[in-house]
């Protein structure tokens, strides 16, 4: 491990003149435990081992077939993985990802077994709003779970009915991942084309619905069975008159039911003239105390991403909340740009490593950044552990010409 990182990952040793062997053993054991212990603002995030696995994840790994090994806390930065969208669109949305459908996405437990991640985000609860209580969960190649305004529900994949046990099995995987010390968060919203919205009153309504369906409540519809998620993430990528107040109301409703529920937001990296993300920015600005951390999306946003516009330093002036750099797992996961190769990733890590607000990185998603498709998550985990994963890329330069911008975006 290079010295530049080593000093930040090892506890300092202090020589003593006289000490008995037994005391040395005790001190070393305690120091080793403390060095790996990682605490976020509200002590809600826990860690897993950083040990890498080069083997392909099993498509059939579940809570009953996976090992019972408990992950060891890592001394590195926090790593968040997104799971649920096999994300098989391919470059430029042309459907050309070069792997078979059965290799697109493996079980949640199989990615937890890699022991790269401290948090797994389930993507997405993509439909809700309008005051009628309907909502829908989309887990891509696994299927969709719909709850209708009349209180009935259905499960389907590509329009064909499927058994709801598919989602119950995900619940078993959630519990398994949590047993390894990995937090599991539900991502609410998604891209601007997803059918979600807020009208006045939806915040309180859906705060209670989501609590009953995914957190500590006893709702009639619990896709993941008895599994209790650790928190919710607001990935709201569109806005309207009521959105800000309703997001505030949603969080307040859930927090009133359980103050320990983890909350995060996913703003785009672009900041407007008053230094706000256009969507979740007003909530981050008005109520920073709501959030345990913020995941800033640095892909599909060329104007504020490396190498010409990376604006993490500006974000640290916007809020004091811990910040996560959200990156794409592969060019096929960032169809309008933003994927960083190992050298570019290293340049970004070098720029932010010593910033006290730098909590870690997220990858969207785990299906495009792990075998069979790639080993990018392993590279990211190593970088977050302080290892040098690339070289030859300098810190970003200033954006100067439209030609530079166009060349960067290919």
Automatic annotation (TrEMBL):
Gene Ontology biological process terms in this record: carbohydrate metabolic process
GO cellular component: extracellular region
Sample GO molecular function, one term: chitinase activity
Key words of the record: Glycosidase, Hydrolase, Membrane, Transmembrane, Transmembrane helix
Transmembrane stretches, start-end: 18-39
InterPro entries to which the protein is assigned, alphabetical: GH, Glyco_hydro18_cat, Glycosyl_Hydrlase18_Chitinase
Record's keyword annotation contains Metal-binding: no
The protein, known as: GH18 domain-containing protein
The organism of origin for this protein: Physocladia obscura
